[in-house]
Amino acid sequence: MCGILALFGLKGNSIEVRALARELQKKLRHRGPDWSGTAVFEREGTYDVLCHERLIINDPTPAGEQPFRDNSNPDIYIVANGEIYNYPELRAKYEGKYEFTSHCDIEVIAPLWNEYGKDFVQHLHGMWGICVYNKKTGEFFAARDHVGIIPLYYGSGPNGEKYIASELKAISDIATDIQILEPGCYITNDMKPAQWYKPQWHNMDYIPNKEIDYQEFRDQLTEAVRSHLMTDVPFGLLISGGVDSSIVAAIAVRLVKEGKVNIKDKHMDAVHSFCIGKQDSPDILAARKVAEYLGTVHHEFTYTLDDGLDSIPDCIYHLETFNPTTIRAGTPMYLMSRKIKALGIKMVLSGEGADELFGGYLYFHKAPNEEEFHKECIRKVRDLYRYDLLRANKATLAWGLEARPPFLHKPFIEYAMSIDPKYKHPKNFNPKSRNTF
To answer: For residues 340 and 274, what is the distance between their CA atoms, to the nearest angstrom?
Structure first.
């Protein structure tokens, strides 16, 4: 995970432009505290700038630093924030056709761009915000992942400048208007967003009728968790004691024990788990039981009312929202993330998205029929970027910690939203009262 910033059409001289870019990208440094990269391009009396704040998760060598320059097309530069989980498969496809210079997952964007142009995003499974830039033509392409796990904003300036950033704070002082790039969308130089992700499940009029197969369900979710364990650094598990995070944790621990996940960090000889709550709160007690059962090295963090109140201003600054529910849930996550990072963990798995996919919230019991149940699931998944995903991403990255939600893996979402809602509706099946895993 990282922070990206792109500035187009800046006036002045190269020293002034670079100084401005460095000041702006400092506002994203919490997202990528490991290294900073800046590339400045002069075009017809104005300047374009690509900036990157790096959080090293994959390929800790300097070869993984950004902005990336395409070695087969030196006019193309790339900055990206996120993870490409099908990177190994994509790299294998282009090995021999493209000369890779790193083991960073983001580099695979270069051969995809060369082959597919802007349609390259259709081939990615992951969470990401990406900007591809052609220094010869000045053209750019910026896109956001399928459900908006990674934030991305864009805006313009009073003299026609154009801005793209991972967080609002990086461009809020220089842009005259700022918009959020919605999930599954992209923008180019005309700054008019267009949708690239158009799955069948977006259609409110389509009600799926796929029969449930619990072995298939298990296999699909297991693969989602396995793909999210692609890392070169120590990772952990967020456990609230609820069903969703516990299932993710259980699958991850099993994969590690079976040797199906390669823990590359030699200092990490066990799987660590984390929970936060007030002293002896239900979450603390339930998470403790889950951790004991799974055999993780468990860390309990407690906080007081004063701790929470003291951190609210900082939490609002990082989450960039005043939504009460988001701040309420984001405050303990913000506090916990700092402690997790202090222990040397740089990536965690979470259970985000399961309630939206499967109607896990209590009010779903009031759905009058299966059709309305399914439509509400669609609405909840499509709105995740406004609330829970915003919280999970920004509360953790305030301290340079990356959170990954396996339930929102693109192939798993498409599988889950293809299941007949009669298997999800509480009147027929309550996933929180049956042990199917």
So the answer is: 8
Q: Per CATH, which fold does 202-423 belong to?
A: Rossmann fold (3.40.50)
Integer Cα distance of 31 and 82 in angstroms: 11
CA–CA separation, 195 and 178 (whole Å): 18
What DSSP string runs through 73-116?
STTEEEEEEEEETTHHHHHHHHBTTB------GGGGHHHHHHHH
Distance between CA atoms of residues 42 and 255, nearest Å: 49
Shortest CA distance to 249 belongs to which of 286, 302, 296, 285?
Answer: 296
- Phi, psi of 230, deg, nearest 5: -75, 110
| 280-305 confidence digits (pLDDT tens) | 999 999 999 999 999 999 999 999 99
What integer pLDDT is reported at residue 307 of this predicted model? Answer: 96
Please say if 315 is a catalytic residue.
Answer: no
Is the sign of the CA dihedral 231, 237, 238, 244 positive or negative?
A: positive
Could you tell me the two tokens for 69?
A: 């320059």
Query: By the 8 A CB rule, do 404 and 140 touch?
Result: no
Predicted local confidence at residue 428, as pLDDT: 77
Q: Which helix (H) or strand (E) holds 395?
A: helix 388-397
DSSP 8-state code for residue 200:
G
The span from the CA of 200 to the CA of 208, in Å, is 9
Closest alpha carbon to 407 in 367, 339, 355: 355
- Residues in the chain with pLDDT values less than 50: 431-437
Provide the CATH number for the domain formed by 2-198 in this structure.
3.60.20.10
* Strands of the sheet with 177-180, listed across from one edge: 35-43, 46-54, 2-10, 162-165, 153-156, 177-180
Tokens found for residue 42: 């002069």
User: Domain-by-domain residue ranges, the chain?
Assistant: 2-198, 202-423
Q: Where are the alpha helices (DSSP H) in 155-304?
A: 214-228, 243-257, 282-294
Rounded Cα distance between 319 and 246, Å, is: 26
The total of other beta-carbon atoms located within 10 Å of residue 15's CB is 9
Residue 215 CB contacts under 8 Å (≥ 6 apart), including other chains: none
What is the tens place of the pLDDT at every residue in 216-261? 999 999 999 999 999 999 999 999 999 999 999 999 999 999 988 7
Backbone angles phi, psi at 428, to 5 degrees: -105, -30
For residue 58, what are its two tokens?
């994959």
Q: Are strands 126-134 and 76-84 parallel, antiparallel or unpaired?
A: antiparallel
pTM exceeds cut of 0.85: yes
What is the length of the chain?
A: 437
Catalytic residue, chosen from 2, 51, 131, 377, is 2
Q: State the Cα angle at 225 between 222 and 231, rounded to 5°.
A: 140
